[in-house]
Amino acid sequence: MKILVLNGINLDMFGKREPALYGTTTLAEITARLEALGKELGVQVESFQTNDEGAMCERIHRAKLEGADAVLINAGAWSHYSYAIRDALAMLTVPVVELHMSNVQAREPFRHQSVFAAIVKGQISGFGVDSYLLALRAAVSAASAAAIS
Ligand code: DQA
User: Are 1 and 43 in contact (CB under 8 A)?
Assistant: First the structure.
């Protein structure tokens, strides 16, 4: 099973960016933690980060063509307004898990809306690095269920 992890705009700055909100763990460290958990769960984890919205859409197109079994996405601020990424994700037929490090519902009103909400399998928000690890477990479980049915 192959799980694709997508990280969007400004998330390459994790570790250096607003530590009170996002902690001090870098994206490279998060990626390593996901790979370790992937090994434990017996799945392959591939991670991608970009600050370019078009590049994110193209990576999602490639996921559709290459056939990932599930997708995790933390799109950063794009989550709140990018209909382009929403439409790209809507092309996928595999489970998509949206995640956020911070609790977006406890923050500014513009973060309360996710334009992905209606088309993803589910959302995980507010657990810091654990949001990623919980999302990977949820994605593997949802992909396994989808494979059986
Ligand atoms: C974020 C939450 C978003 O609102 C914000 O724009 C980010 C990070 C999170 O992981 O908590 O860049 O997605």
Answer: yes
26 lines ligand 1 (CB under 6 A): no
- Looking up residue 124, the CATH number of its domain turns out to be 3.40.50.9100
Active-site residue flag, 22: yes
Let me know how long the chain is.
Answer: 149
Model pLDDT for residues 112-137, shown as the tens digit of each residue:
999 999 999 999 999 999 999 999 99
Question: Which structure tokens are listed for 146?
Answer: 């989808």
SS3 34: helix
Note the pLDDT tens digit of each residue in 15-48. 999 999 999 999 999 999 999 999 999 999 999 9
> Known catalytic residue: 81?
no
Query: What is the domain extent for residue 131?
Result: 2-148
Number of domains making up the chain: 1
What's the pTM value of the predicted model, to 2 decimals? 0.96
Distance 100 CA to ligand 1 centre (A): 6
- And the tokens for 76? 């950063």
Report the nearest-CA residue for atom 13 of ligand 1. 76
